[in-house]
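Apologies for my clumsy wording, but could you write out the amino acids of a protein and the C-alpha cells describing how it folds?
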Amino acid sequence: MVNQYPLNVPLSNPAFAYALNILLWLCFSRENLQFILGKIYDQKLGKPLGEKSYAEDCRLYTPENPKGAFYNLTSSIDIFVIAHFLGWTFKVWIFRNSVMAWTMSIAFEIMEWTMEVWLPNFKECWWDHFLLDMFGCNLLGMIIGQFSIKIFKMRKLHWFMERTEEFEALPWYRKVVYAFTSRDEYVRQEKWHWLAEPWTFNAVVWFWLMNLYLDLSYFYNKAMIDIPPPHWLCAVRIWVLAFFSIMASNDYYDYVVARKCNSMTLPVFLLHVIMILEGLLFLKNIKPGLFDNPLHYHIKLFWIGFFIVLALAEMILLVDKLRKHRKYLPPSEKDKKSR
C-alpha cells in the first residue's frame, strides 16, 4: 500500500525555513545566541527580561481600587486575549473534533497549574483560568472554529471512535458512557476505537503529547533566550506552526486512524523534527536553577494518580490483545481478509 496523498512541499516551506533557523541557533552558545539575536534579528533582543506574574492579587472585586471595582479582571484583558481567542480557533481547525478540543483545553490549564512554580507567566488567578481562558477565550474560539467548519464543510476527524447512527442518536451524556462501553462491539466489527489495543491508544495519547509539547516549548524557549511575548519572532513561530499543524494533523489522522498511509508524510515527519530541535534548543539554553522549586503537593498527587491510571490502561489493553491475538488492520487489509 502506498501513500494516497502527494507531498505538498510548497506548503511545508515556511516550517522547513523555521526548522533551519532553530538548527542554526543550536550552533551557538547562549551568550553568542543572545548577541546574534540582538545584532541580526532585532536590537531589542539579547537582553534579560523581567518575568510577569498574573496572580499578584486574585481578588475579583476590589471596591477600594480607584481604577475600578473589577480592575484586576479588566487589566488582564489585553492583546493576548485576542491572540488566545484566535489561537483556539486555529486549534479547532487542527483537531476538527470538539471532544479533542476540550480535552486539550483542560490539559493545558492543568499544565499551567503544574508548571507555575517554574515559569511565573503560568501563574494565574482562578478566574483567569476559568473565566478568561477555559470558558472565555477557549470556548469562544471553539464556537467560532466549529461554526466555520460547518460553513466551509471542512473534514471532521473522529479521533476516539468511528461515528455510527446508533452513536449519533444518543444524547451527549450517554455518548460519553458509550465511548467507553462500546469498545468490545467496535473491536468485533473491526472499526476504529482508540481503546481497541495499545497501538490505537498510544497513537491518540501521542497526539495529545505533541500538542502540549509544542505549546509548552513556545513558553519555555522564549523564556530561556529572553524573547518578549509581543515580539515578531514569537508571532512568526505561532503563525507558521499554526497553519502547518492543520496539514500535519490531517496527515497524522490519515496515518493512525484512517490508515490511508503506510508511513508518515513530510508534514508529520517535519513536525517531529521541529519538536526535537526545539527540545535541544531548550536543553542547551536552560537557565540554572529553573526546576529547583518543587511541585505543589496536590499537583504531585494528581500526576501520580494520572500515571497510575495510564499504566493500568496500557497493561489492560496489552493483556487483552495478547489473550485474544488481535491485530488492528487498515481498511485495505480488511478487504483482503474478507475475500
